[in-house]
Amino acid sequence: MKAEPTLPELQAPSREEEQAEVIRRLEEDIIFGRLAPGLRLVEDTLMQRYGASRHFVRQALFQLERQGIVLREKNVGATVRFYSAEEVRQIYEVREMLTRQAALMIALPAPDSLIDELNELQRHYCIKADAQDMRGIHETNDAFHLALFSACGNPYLVRSLQDYMNLTLPMRAKNLADSEGLALSRRQHELMIELLKGRDSWALAQLCVDHMQYSKADYLVRISNDKKPQ
Amino acid sequence: MKAEPTLPELQAPSREEEQAEVIRRLEEDIIFGRLAPGLRLVEDTLMQRYGASRHFVRQALFQLERQGIVLREKNVGATVRFYSAEEVRQIYEVREMLTRQAALMIALPAPDSLIDELNELQRHYCIKADAQDMRGIHETNDAFHLALFSACGNPYLVRSLQDYMNLTLPMRAKNLADSEGLALSRRQHELMIELLKGRDSWALAQLCVDHMQYSKADYLVRISNDKKPQ
DNA sequence: ATCACCCCTATTATTGACAATAACCATGGC
DNA sequence: GCCATGGTTATTGTCAATAATAGGGGTGAT
């Protein structure tokens, strides 16, 4: 008899989930501003903070560098990445373009199955919003948009869209906490579902683009204020 | 006196370049078909083949997985990825969309500096083409398109475009060897430069999209033939 | 006083040994 | 004869010790 397999699903963190958890927590700490832009992310410190081995922390930093929210310099280390107003505008320009294209590709009127799915996701979103559960809000919100855009039929377009959603996470995060932005977002989601029942693709596309203006504008104001007082 | 620093630039592979070299060689072996789709990429084998440590091979596989030309399965290993006709069509749909948008954003007529730069790159391209230097052809070709699209002014759009250029590498590679495709490609490059001197953005955008049809069509025919005889 | 240089420390990069895992094969029970 | 079961091997995943590197502070020369 060997050392027994320790009962798989009881409480085993199972390595790969441990890795995912480190990534999630680090990502969360960055996008919610607990780790400010420019701050150095020293591997040893993060190892302590998350109780993970160097290997996992390293992988997480690579992954988040790829996602664009961490900057790594050879033999120097990682820092929380900061985006200038100019860069933000450029990033959103591409995101808006992809969004518009994807929206236009959704066949209208949408099938009931999609409507039902989105209503269900929207319900979850509202629950998390009411509970002020930041991570939950962010996850359900992204799930909603992902389900919506998946209806465009091109998984590669969806993947690119997702890349840009991840890239803009730091800009969108503040709004997930802001009750005004939250209420607006909620109404827009419901309007999207209504438009899916109709035939006006252009209206839908425009709404999807409008949907991201609030957080973009808010972020731009925020960073211009951060610069000035200094 | 310590063990001397071995004269930095004499013949030092300098680790980071060694890493890049492994990636390049592996990529090359895949896109030029020396490693067929579906083939298992065993780490130990690659370590031997490229004389690199496990770490570097690993990194290379991660990188190429991200690029989309390698498929990795947990605890199973990596294989050369294969794309179905349907996937190829979807990938090209997005690539064409991004290309068209980028082309339309280039301000016409283009400044002389850009024209000069492209002429120079085109000259290199022709040299490599005449020399039948596959890697050289591919590198100079991509450099040409990168310089062209960079003129759109949005580096993020260029980055996404580059992602799709990398993703379609296996489909484009065959054409880099094909003398007919090569000649067509050459003429189209020159036509692009001519259009940059004019004011017709739509003609330029259309030409850029047309430019990628030959290799796409060729690849689709190729894989449908591969399927049949079996 | 200033500049250049060197050592020292903080940090990341690399490596090879080792653990975990999954596929494979053979063997025995039914 | 066939399915289940256990062992074996091939392969990837993890780790912790070691090497390399860059930056900072102090020391000495000019």
Report on the structure:
The structure is a homodimer of 230-residue chains. Chain A has two domains: 73 residues, Arc Repressor Mutant, subunit A, CATH 1.10.10; 143 residues, Four Helix Bundle (Hemerythrin (Met), subunit A). Helices cover 72% and strands 4% of the residues of chain A. Chain A has twelve helices and three strands. In chain A, strands 1-3-2 form a three-stranded antiparallel sheet. The radius of gyration of chain A is 20 Å and the shape is globular. The termini of chain A are far apart. The structure holds a DNA duplex (30 and 30 nucleotides).
Count interface residues per chain for the largest interface.
A-B, 17 and 17 residues
Beta strands of chain A, count: 3
What number is the mean pLDDT of chain A? 90
How many domains, in number, for the residues of chain A? Answer: 2
If strands are numbered along the chain, what order do they take across the biggest sheet of chain A? Answer: 1-3-2
Major β-sheet profile of chain A = 3 strands, antiparallel
CATH topology call of the largest domain in chain A: Four Helix Bundle (Hemerythrin (Met), subunit A)
- What gross morphology of chain A would you assign? globular
Determine the fraction of residues in helical runs of chain A and give it as a percent range: over 70%
CATH class of the largest domain in chain A: Mainly Alpha
The CATH superfamily label of the largest domain in chain A reads: GntR ligand-binding domain-like
The chain-level structural class of chain A is mainly alpha
Q: Output the number of helix runs of chain A.
A: 12
- The end-to-end span of chain A amounts to 67 Å
Low-confidence stretches of chain A: 1-12
Based on CA atoms alone, the radius of gyration of chain A comes out at 20 Å
CATH architecture of the largest domain in chain A: Up-down Bundle
Order of helices and strands of chain A: HHEHHEEHHHHHHHH
Multimeric status of the protein: homodimer
